[in-house]
Amino acid sequence: MERTHPSLKKLPDVPGVYLFKKGRTVLYVGKATSLRDRVRSYFDDDLIATRGPRIVDMVTKADRVAFETMPTVLEALVREAALIKKYQPRANVEGKDDKTFLYAVITKEEWPRVLTVRGKDLNESRTAFLQGSTLKKASVEVSYVFGPFPSGPQLREALRLIRRIFPFFDTQKPVSEGGKHQRAKIEFNRQIGQYPREMEKAAYRHSIRNVALFLDGRAKELRKMLVREMTRAAREERFEDAAEIKRELFALDHVQDVSLIKEEREEALEGFAGARLEAYDVAHLAGTNAIGVMTVVEDGAPDKRAYRTFRIRGAGNDDIASLREVLSRRLPHTEWPLPAAFVVDGGKTHKKAAEAVLAEAGVAIPVVAVVKDEKHRPREVIGARRAGVSEADAVLANSEAHRFAIARHRAARRLTK
After folding, report:
1. Is 300 left (phi over 0), alpha (psi -120 to 50) or beta?
2. CA–CA gap between residue 104 and residue 150 (Å, rounded)
3. Is the pTM of this model over 0.70?
């Protein structure tokens, strides 16, 4: 798609969801604090350097962008999950293990709870397995399943915000069970407004219905329903009920989702929060002034203070040998934190060479390889899924290593002239 495509000019500066499409096929679904800024970022000049091949391929194939505006980022997050579930877009789900995604569920109990579970802990018979503090999994039937949600932290933050509007229980054990500790926790959370105060089961289930509609991406329908109920309560002179519904409507439209906005910005590169990657590259000119470098990406951003340079002592025109040398010299530096994965420039041969060095040193850390095309652009990322890191972070780390290696090599050449 050209960056001047008409569909890009219509994007408003408001929260919402966007869909990259080719014809009627949905290639990718995303959410945004600002639809205009977020979608335009896919057409920046540095897209190849900062995004994984899957995203680059998706942008190249798309012929238009559809979008839906949302009143809040919270609603955009929930709507994104509903659309991913509906369309299963390749760029969202391909290469990812569905079992690692987080889901929100509502239990089928006397007092339903709203909980988060991993895909691996859900089965087709609508049973969820809950990981307890004793590492023993308890099973529970569920009435509703919502998701998948790409970001676990954002889902948890979303539930925290929703609970301030429609209080619900999220206790580890069923509400009617548990001992003194659970009763104390319930009472404390009631006092601070996180759990429902004493109410009849019918009223509580009414609140759970509202939570279910919201998590299902049906906030517009929920608003209309609440307006009808508020009008009916006022007509029947149930003024306290009408006032409570009015509060809920106001809260839906004015939810303070600043924390969600912050987390979205932190995940703008589609990376995994907390992952530290080390990338390696070598630069030389006909084997002379060969320089090897190590660059670091942490939390989806370069950590330039951790960059290191190695002057190659062996055959500078042998990239595989140079890679082995650099890794062998890096590993004895125990004062440098070890990464979640090592990223190398090249294909399977380079990946295996790096893995051999690590195995010999007794280091059990995965290796990711970034394969380039004839124009030295990322074409494929090997091993990112197995390593549990994002392709975007691997590509960014590799791009930084290439840039840094070229800069250091040029500096070395100037010194030898």
Report:
1. left
2. 12
3. no
